Amino acid sequence: MNTVEYKINELFETIQGEGAFTGQPSIFIRLQGCPVACSWCDTKHTWEIELEDKVTKEQIIAKTQETSQWASFSPEQILSLFKVQGFKAKHIVITGGEPCMVDLTPLCQTLEKAGYSCQIETSGTFDVRTTKDCWVTVSPKVNMRGGYEILASAMKRANEIKHPVATEQHVDDLKSLLAKHKVTNTPVYLQPISQKQRATELAIATCIENNWRLSVQVHKYIGIE
Ligand code: SF4
């Protein structure tokens, strides 16, 4: 039995819309807390962990709107919740917020033991603490307001690198980062920011030029969470 608990903002079943697992039915676990402060962040409600926002597990499960409310769950409570909710997906996406602010090993061990595959989506600014079989998606957030550096350990652990782009500067930042950390074989996905036409055109051209892959946030096009 684990004594560790995780601060969860949201827990829901959907289709993974990004990166290598696009199209995969998945259970998303969104953790509360992120100090990275990306200007375009679409989950700003997950940034702060305020005690006054702590609610019951039932309130988190019943959530229908984006709020900064969170509740503590142990890995076993998360697992039993999947059964209560009748979730069918066998792939888990642990996201945030910044999930790697905490050690995810106990959570992933529990889930993997129960037959689930795990994926973490992280900004690469914290050490990735998880199981060896967990799929790690690093979406490096370079020069953000929070002032965090991308860690060499996170870049090394990445199974895929997913980079948001809107401008040439974003592409240059990514190329510098890959060169700095000598990343050559990890698949790279470019993701146009906010589905903007110019960002999408830039991403397509850059993917073709560098033999990278395009990730278009399918869930936003088909109108699911
Ligand atoms: S790392 Fe993710 S959650 Fe944190 S500010 Fe950036 S986009 Fe938002």
Outline:
The protein has 225 residues and is an alpha/beta fold.
Helix-strand blueprint:
Blueprint: E1 6-15, E2 25-31, H1 57-61, E3 71-73, H2 75-85, E4 91-95, H3 105-113, E5 117-122, E6 135-138, H4 152-157, E7 160-165, H5 168-180, E8 188-192, H6 197-210, E9 213-214, H7 218-221
Parallel strand pairs: 2-4, 4-5, 5-6, 6-7, 7-8, 8-9
Antiparallel strand pairs: 1-2, 1-3
The structure holds iron/sulfur cluster (SF4).
Tell me what the structure shows:
The chain has 225 residues and is an alpha/beta fold. It has a domain of 157 residues: TIM Barrel, CATH 3.20.20.70. Helices cover 28% and strands 21% of the residues. The protein is built from seven helices and nine strands; from the N terminus they run ββαβαβαββαβαβαβα. It has a nine-stranded mixed sheet with strand order 3-1-2-4-5-6-7-8-9. Helix 6 links the parallel strand 8 and strand 9. The longest helix has 14 residues. The two termini are 32 Å apart. The mean pLDDT is 94.
